[in-house]
Amino acid sequence: MIICSVTCADNLHEAKVMARMTKYHMPYARIVICLVERSMHPAVLNVPWFDEVILAKELGIPDFETNLLKYNLLEAVTSIKPAFFRFLFDRNPDELNIVFMDTDVIPYAPFDDLLFALEYHNILLSPNLLGPCGEPWSYFWVGVFCTGFLALRRSEETMRFLEWWGQRLYSHGYLHAPYLFVDQKWMDLAPAYFDITVWKHPGYNVAYWNLHEPSRKIISARDGRYWLEQGLPFVCFHYSGLSGALQFHLEACIPDHENSLYELLRLFKEELVVMGEEEFSQIPWSYDYHIDGTPITTEERYSYRG
Description:
This protein has helices at 12-25, 64-68, 73-79, 81-91, 112-117, 137-142, 156-171, 190-193, 245-253, 260-274, 277-280, 298-305, and strands at 2-7, 30-35, 52-55, 97-101, 105-107, 123-127, 145-153, 196-198, 220-222, 225-227, 236-238. With 306 residues, it is an alpha/beta fold.
């Protein structure tokens, strides 16, 4: 199994935590990072948990740097996911399963259930919610599925899906545009076009936006593992909204500070510091500048969209 992620140099501390935790729980997994920078940052060359680091410009995306001019950092990072998947499948012909995780998705158990499901399904999409909620309005904007975590099995159907998704993100992977939310909103259409399996295991992709769901809450911890109701494992947590939304929803949905999730959050923040958060977070994105070093303005990016 390959587990892959996309990052820029200013987020390498987070990528290192994700990779270390993945190797701890799944030492058999191969970790491949795509770096969206003009050149390889020296800091990625000595990370023991990265099996391979690839520059985004090596993925074979047509007119990559010119096309990237219309995207900001978030849009650029999310837009290359389909091409990254295709590259990895082509590069590793004997590999059947590839899982994508955002760098802020941290494993706390092996992906055993997921790997079993990939024996029978080609495309597993993780829904933001497992049931109706009282105020669904934000999901009309961000979409039904979270593309910060998805798993694919090699098949013709998977390749058709990646071709379709990649074409849309090449041209329309925008954040602030009607009906779009970078790479994610397109997934609302995917179940109508492809053989999609909605991956409803509550222990995967737990995040601040679904903490209100009873099935997502950690109810016990033993032997270094965490468990949900009905004996299901707590597998991975998505630390999106770390600067505000996560803490707010955690307090609102799980007021008991003895819950294991508070300790996991504290440890995650501490490890980010150890992994170089202060240093890496200050690194400017190389694609925010022209080759001659002059900054690319917002007006220029919008002009390239035309």
